[in-house]
Description:
The structure is a single chain. Among the domains are: 12-79, DNA Methylphosphotriester Repair Domain; 89-133; 330-497, Endonuclease III, domain 1 (Orthogonal Bundle). With 498 residues, it is of the alpha+beta class. Helix 3 crosses helix 6. The protein starts with 11 loop residues before the first helix and ends with a helix. Strand 7 and strand 8 (255-263) form a beta hairpin. The chain is built from 22 helices and eleven strands. 45% of the residues lie in helices and 11% in strands.
Amino acid sequence: MDICSPSSFPTPDACYAAIQARDTRFDGRFFTGVTSTGIYCRPVCPARLPKRENCTFWPSAAAAEQAGFRACLRCRPEAAPGTPAAQGSAATVSRALRLIGEGALDTGSVCQLADRLGLGERQVRRLFNMHLGANPEAVAATRRLLLANQLLRDTNLPVADIAFASGFSSLRRFNDAFAKRYGEPPTAIRRAARKKGHGATNKDNALPFDLRLRLGFRPPFDWQMILDYFEMRAIPGVEAIDGNRYRRTVRLNDAHAFIEAEPDKSRDILWVRVMSNRPFALADLVMRLRRLFDLDAQPQAIGAHFSDDPLIGPLVKQRPGLRIPGAFDGFELAIRAILGQQVSVKGATTIAGRLVEAYGDQVTTPGENWPSYLFPEPQTLVRDDLGKLGMPRTRGDTLSTVAKAVVGGDVALHPGVNVSEMVAALTSLKGIGEWTASYVALRALGDPDAFPSGDLGLQKAAALNSEKLSAKALSATAENWRPWRGYAALHLWSSLSS
């Protein structure tokens, strides 16, 4: 018998849709038992897709084993996120990967990384081998070299700047590592790229660190929808729309930069221009950009899932390339969501602009029509006078409460954290309800199944024969949209706009 956790996937068809897409966002939420082989797997297993009639679905590895299935040797279900073998350790590895992306192993050792994690070096190495099949040094080196290879091909940055931006501590180490991995020096890659016409120089270089990143995606890609969504909610001073381009300021540790995104007219590529007054490690920026524009979505699989749905199916046909507009920073999105409670989008945007002007850091722009502020950091908003910006005093207190919780580590608002734990932590704070937490999970954490059923717009858009559905009725209707209820929400919101 199929058993799926009500909080994850209540229907077997939803589970099968998830394994068809091999969407990594569902890893650890359920397990697939294959009756023809007697093996159970994770949703991301690389093995051949089993037939639907041979699949059963279970909420845990223990449940699958109790039913007589044995663990797959390829995807190792016993080490999936949330299982006993990985309980607690997956979050540790995720934190370690974030630290590596920030350069923890570019200037430090695995021993120092372990100290920051509160673990011993041997334990860190064991966790990396268990979850990733490689040691920390290999993971860091691969990330650095892949990024360096792209920068050599797509930019005219000096090789020394590329070495630093990729996370290498010296040009010599970069040259040695690159030659060892690719069998030729970085300059050879650069020359070959030039012969193919890659790496065109920007004509209006305004800052010394100026490059274009090439980010691929699976078509179709509804850029106009992304642009319209961001334009309506753009934070004054931080974000701006210039024609077909999205612009914003970004803060990365002690550096700041300006980004400008625009899709290629003939290829499935999003070009992102990055400008800064000095080089900085780019790995973390790339990951954030892919989440911001939902570039890892699989629209074909998601569209097929909704094809027979009488409500969402027609909307998908109208906008097959719809994506979930993400967030560059989870804290920024949470503050923006709180400001949007019980006020219009325009009203929330106005107050957000006041907040940025009062507490954000002003920066020199690279030219006209560029935003000129960095969004305030959490520690800056731990104060009791935010109500003076033109919002109710209680809402100002909520902003400060969230900022204090983030600074103190009581609330984590970045992808990789447990969604249920984040929602519980956020809703435990005064002034935060289920709608705000679900909205943050959808856009900041990138949870594709997050669904704010209390949203009045969704209740109205989903009503076929009445003025609007109740939150309970909408939740029941949305059960058929799992595991991609987040995309259903975006389609419904878009239908109201159009």
